[in-house]
Amino acid sequence: MDNSKNMVKLAYEALEEKKGEDIQVIEIKDISIIADYFIIANGTNSSQVDALVNSVSDNLSKNGYEPKRIEGVRSASWILMDYGDVVVHVFSKEDRLFYNLERIWRDGKLVSKDQLED
User: Fold this and answer.
1) The domain that contains 79 carries what CATH number?
2) C-beta of residue 10 within 8 angstroms of C-beta of residue 59
3) What are residue 110's DSSP bridge partners?
4) Strand partners, 40
5) How far apart, in Å, do the first and last CA atoms of the chain sit?
6) Residue 112, exposed/middle/buried by CB under 10 A (0-12, 13-18, 19+)?
7) What is the rounded distance in angstroms from the CA atom of residue 115 to the CA atom of residue 110?
8) In what order do the strands lie in the sheet with 109-111?
9) Which helix (H) or strand (E) holds 87?
């Protein structure tokens, strides 16, 4: 399994563990140089958003992946975790609906949880 797909799998598992809502993985490597994958999820409140971010950070860190940067932690309404080839977006429910990244990146390819096991 390549590095970026392994990071996606680990982040997905961490989001699932903390009950992240509507976890979406979008493969964007063929349409953008920003990253290979976006992972988008939301929490139901700021405490859950914090827990989701901490879970992703902890799971990736213990597997040797450190972020290039993390932005938005203070607001806890949209946190961007940049791991280079993988960018994790954790939103509050309201901000996710407002920014609608899935619509913006609709030319990307949705990746199912099952596809991460390959």
Assistant:
1) 3.30.460.10
2) yes
3) 26
4) 24, 89
5) 7
6) exposed
7) 10
8) 69-71, 78-82, 86-92, 37-43, 21-27, 109-111
9) strand 86-92
* Tokens (6 digits) for 56: 């992703």
* The total number of structural domains that make up the chain: 1
Strand 37-43 vs strand 109-111: parallel, antiparallel, or unpaired? unpaired
User: How high is the pLDDT of residue 118?
Assistant: 65
| Residue closest to 7 by CA, chosen among 77, 63, 73, 89 | 63
Q: Model-level pTM greater than 0.85?
A: yes
Q: Which residue has the tokens 């990146």?
A: 105
List 81's β-bridge partners, or say none.
Answer: 70, 88
Q: Which two tokens stand for residue 49?
A: 């958003």
Q: Which residue has the tokens 């040797």?
A: 64
Q: Which two tokens stand for residue 72?
A: 């938005």
Q: Could you report the per-residue pLDDT of 71-111, keeping only the tens digit for each?
A: 986 777 899 999 999 999 999 999 999 999 999 999 999 99
